[in-house]
Amino acid sequence: MAHDPTVKGLGAPPEKFDGSGLRFLIVHARWNESVITPLVKGAVETMEKYGAKRENIVVESVPGSYELPVACSRMIAASQIQASANATDLMGASSLLADPSATTSPTTANAPLKGPFAAVIAIGVLIKGSTQHFEYISDAVTHGLMKIQLETGVPVIYGVLNCNTDEQALQRAGVGRETKGHNHGEDWGAAAVELGVKTQRWA
Ligand code: DLZ
């Protein structure tokens, strides 16, 4: 089969975005694991290339794509609650510092960041079957993820492949059998860092 020209990726970014001080979340489905695994790997490796530290990239799995929105929603909310708790702790710590007898555990430079996620990537692979399942799940997940990012203001990168065949999906993970294709996980990793940096600028 000839090279599929629709399997293309993101162009070069207008600047080098630095994800080093940011915390990210990847939630991925486990359906179609042979496609999911390279996509997640591509996303993580690209985020690291853009400075994100592996310990600041939280990876969580759910059974199928239909579960992506609820996991993203809960984990974003939990990270925001944790951020408020940390802020309260810090206020307490600064008053403790006034007391020379108080002991606080020092944070190390390599400790994972806590607090809100700068951006989230939701990764799923939906392959069209002979029933209406594909259309219902695809539509619900797409709208669910958009709703979450608009309601929370946290970018949710759309890492859901909606494909007609296994081969189409494999090619979009860079592991096609007929032709390798391009790993879209890399584009999603780059988009997560860019949006994470930009939403901080837009704050
Ligand atoms: C049920 C189902 C089907 C038929 N196909 C897929 C698929 O191609 N990709 C995917 O991520 N998940 C699929 N699922 C599972 C649903 O997303 C979901 O996990 C179950 O319906 C349970 O809610």
TrEMBL record:
EC id: 2.5.1.78
GO biological process: riboflavin biosynthetic process
Catalytically driven reaction(s): (2S)-2-hydroxy-3-oxobutyl phosphate + 5-amino-6-(D-ribitylamino)uracil = 6,7-dimethyl-8-(1-D-ribityl)lumazine + phosphate + 2 H2O + H(+)
Pathway(s) the chain acts in: Cofactor biosynthesis; riboflavin biosynthesis; riboflavin from 2-hydroxy-3-oxobutyl phosphate and 5-amino-6-(D-ribitylamino)uracil: step 1/2
PANTHER family listed in its UniProt record: 6,7-DIMETHYL-8-RIBITYLLUMAZINE SYNTHASE, 6,7-DIMETHYL-8-RIBITYLLUMAZINE SYNTHASE DMRL SYNTHASE LUMAZINE SYNTHASE
Similarity remark: Belongs to the DMRL synthase family.
Protein's job: Catalyzes the formation of 6,7-dimethyl-8-ribityllumazine by condensation of 5-amino-6-(D-ribitylamino)uracil with 3,4-dihydroxy-2-butanone 4-phosphate. This is the penultimate step in the biosynthesis of riboflavin.
Name assigned to this protein: 6,7-dimethyl-8-ribityllumazine synthase
Organism whose genome encodes this protein: Rhodotorula taiwanensis
